[in-house]
Amino acid sequence: xxxxxxxxxxxxxxxxxxxxxxxxxxxxxxxxxxxxxxxxxxxxxxxxxxxxxxxxxxxxxxxxxxxxxxxxxxxxxxxxxxxxxxxxxxxxxxxxxxxxxxxxxxxxxxxxxxxxxxxxxxxxxxxxxxxxxxxxxxxxxxxxxxxxxxxxxxxxxxxxxxxxxxxxxxxxxxxxxxxxxxxxxxxxxxxxxxxxxxxxxxxxxxxxxxxxxxxxxxxxxxxxxxxxxxxxxxxxxxxxxxxxxxxxxxxxxxxxxxxxxxxxxxxxxxxxxxxxxxxxxxxxxxxxxxxxxxxxxxxxxxxxxxxxxxxxxxxxxxxxxxxxxxxxxxxxxxxxxxxxxxxxxxxxxxxxxxxxxxxxxxxxxxxxxxxxxxxxxxxxxxxxxxxxxxxxxxxxxxxxxxxxxxxxxxxxxxxxxxxxxxxxxxxxxxxxxxxxxxxxxxxxxxxxxxxxxxxxxxxxxxxxxxxxxxxxxxxxxxxxxxxxxxxxxxxxxxxxxxxxxxxxxxxxxxxxxxxxxxxxxxxxxxxxxxxxxxxxxxxxxxxxxxxxxxxxxxxxxxxxxxxxxxxxxxxxxxxxxxxxxxxxxxxxxxxxxxxxxxxxxxxxxxxxxxxxxxxxxxxxxxxxxxxxxxxxxxxxxxxxxxxxxxxxxxxxxxxxxxxxxxxxxxxxxxxxxxxxxxxxxxxxxxxxxxxxxxxxxxxxxxxxxxxxxxxxxxxxxxxxxxxxxxxxxxxxxxxxxxxxxxxxxxxxxxxxxxxxxxxxxxxxxxxxxxxxxxxxxxxxxxxxxxxxxxxxxxxxxxxxxxxxxxxxxxxxxxxxxxxxxxxxx
Length: 825
What we know:
two-stranded antiparallel sheet, globular
C-alpha cells in the first residue's frame, strides 16, 4: 500500500465539469493533480474534499484479497450455529408456507406476509438441501454475506479505503448481522437497495443501457419482496427529480424535448414509468370522501384487507392503475425510446414470474399491483408495535452508533465548510425539529399515552415538514461530490420516513442502517486519506491512538464520581477518594495537553483525523461486541431490543424432545403401543393416522399454533390444533403429547387422561420490556441532570442489564407415560 500525494479522491471526479486543466507548471504544494506529467491547478470552485484528500493506492489483487477475506468472515459468522436459535413466529409462517411450496402444495400471494420472493427462494433451498431451521435461514445468511461485497462496485465513489470500511461495517453491523440469520425479507431488501444505488450511479457515469436493465430487474425483485421497496423508490426518485428539476421544468414549459433530459432525468423516467401503476392505491386515502371503499380496512366482511370492495370500486381501481401505467409508459418512451420498453419488459417478466409463483397463481399480479400498497395503507391506523417517534433513535444508539456518529460528524464537518446557506438550513431544520419535539411532549403526549382532545396536529406537522425539508435541502447544497450529497439525502429521508411510518419494528432498522453504513464508509475513507501516514509512522504519531479511549474512561469516571456530602479528609477512605478525583483531573489535563502539543506540531487536521480514526476503531470494537452478544448470546432472548417478541429456547428444545421421542417410538416399536388398535387407526388412504404411539395436540389460544406448525410440519396427520379453553377443553385418549396455554391449565387437567404425567411449564414467547414508552419529557430531562440515573443506560449499553423484567407468556407440555423418555431433558 502506498500513498500517492498527487491523486485526488472521488470527491473531485464528480466535479469534472468544474475542473479546468492548465499547462502551467506549479509547485507540488499547489492544490491540484498530475495530468499527463503536468501539475494541474484546481480552481477555487472545487470542493474542499477535492483539495485536501489524497488517495491511497491499493493494488487490485490486494483489494480483492481484502474484500474476499471480509466475505469469508461474513459467511462463517452467519452460518455458524444458524439453526441454534428458536424459530420466531414470523419465521415459522414464512418457513411453513415455503415448505408447502417445496412439497407441491399451493401458496398464493398474501400482502400480510409481503411478496413472494422469500417463499420461492426458501422453497428452492428446501428442495435442494432439505427443510430444517438451518436451510430456512440459509438464503438470508448468503444474501447478508453477499451484501458485504457490493461496496466493491462503489470504489470510485467511496474510495478504496472507504469501500473497505463500508464492507467491514456491513459484515459486523448488529442489525444487518442479526437479520442475516433471521427468516425475514429485510436482508434481501438491503441487497436490492444497494444494487439499485450501484445501477443508478453506473448509468449516470456512462449512459450504458445495461445499467437501466439492471435497475429494472432489481426493482422487480425488490417490489416482489417487500412493500418497503415503494419507500425506497420514492426516496431515490425524489433525489433524481431534484437533480433534474431544471430540465423537467424546461420540458413542461416547452423549452426542451424529452430526449434532451440528462442522465438523472432518464433514469428517473425509467423508474417512474415502471413504478407509477403501483402508486394507484394512493387514491384510496380519499375513499372516505367519495364513499367508496378502494382499500378495505381490517375485518371488512367478505373482502380481503386492502382490496377494492365491490364492482364499482374494482373498476375505479382498474381505471387509475391503467391510467398511471399509460402515463408512465408514455413519459418513459418519450425520454428513453426503445430502451424504456426493454426495461419495462425485463421488469414485468421478473415481477410476474415471482408474484405468480412461476405462473402457478395468476392472482399474484392484481394482488401485487393493488393490494400490496392497499393493505399497508389500510394498516397504518393499526400502528403495529405502537412505538413512538424516537424508536429508531434508541435502536441506533444501542446498535448502530458507529455508522450514525461517523455520518453525523462527516456531515457537520462539511456543513461548516459549505458556507452560510448550508449552515442556515441545517440550523433551521434542527431548531424546527426540536420545537416539534417539545410541542409533541407538551401538548400531544401524556404519560397515559392519550393526546389532548382539542389539540390540532397542524402546528406539529408544519414544524416537522419545515425541519425535514430544510435538512434535505441542506444535503443538496453541501460542497461535496454528487454521490456524497445523495448519501446524506438518503440517510436523512430514510430516517424520517421510517420514524413517522405507521409500523415500527426492529427488523426495519436494516433499512435505516444501510445508508448510514455507506455514508460512514465514505467518511472513514476520507479520514484515512486525510492522515499523512508516512509522517505518522516516522514521528511516532501512532501513540495518539490510545489517547481517546483513555480520555473517555477518565471522563466517564469523573462524570459519575461522587465525593459525598460529608467529606472528611482525616478519614483514609475519604482522603483516597479525594486524591483519586484530583488524579483523574490531572490525567485529563495531561491527555488534553498531549493532543494540543501534537496538533500544534503536526497540524490540527492530522491530529483530529487520528482522533477520528481512533474513535471509529473504538466504536468498531464495541460494534463487534454488540453483534456477537445479540446473535450468539441473546439471539432468542429479549434482553436485546432487536429481538422484540420471540419464541423461547424452551419451545425450541421441547420440539427437539418431541422429535427424539418420535424416533424412539419408531425404533423401539414398543409392544404396548404397536399391539393396541387404539393407536393404529388408518385414514381413508390406508396410511397410519400417526406414528405408533405419537399423537400431538396443540392448544390454539393466543396464536399458539405458531411456531408449532413449522416445528411439527412433518408429522402429517399426527398433529391436531384444537381450542382447549373453558368448556371446550377436551383431550383425546389417543394423544400422547399435549401443549396447553397456561391460561387453560386448570380446565385441561380436569379432563386429562390418566396416562399423562405431570405437566412441565415452559415459556412459549417473551418480549422486551417497553417501559420507555411511558417516559415523559420531564422524566427524560430529570434523567439527564440526575447523575445517579446515568449508570442505567450505560449498564444496558455495555452489559444488557434490564431495569425491569422480561415479559412472557407460558404453556404446559404433557407427555404420555406410554412414551419413552427423551434424553434432551
